[in-house]
Amino acid sequence: VRSVPELCGIMPNSFAHIFGHLAKAEQNARFIVTASYLEVYCEKVRDLLSSDVNKSLEVHLRNGVFVADGLSEISVSSPE
Known about the structure:
Largest sheet: 2 strands, antiparallel
Shape: globular
Mean pLDDT: 84
Strand content: 25-35%
Distance between the termini: 14 Å
């Protein structure tokens, strides 16, 4: 399934796209890639990377983008 992009899903394809472009950048260029995962279900927002399953997130509009304050972030070094 991983070899067929149409069957992988949006997140694996997004990371493959991002890291594909980074691989084409100049050799001396440096990048930091971070990722967050959240779930919106029944009007509740959940941080899927947090070990605290009861952690509540405040969601508000900032510069035309919905932002979840306190959302966990992890550094990502490959599409896997």
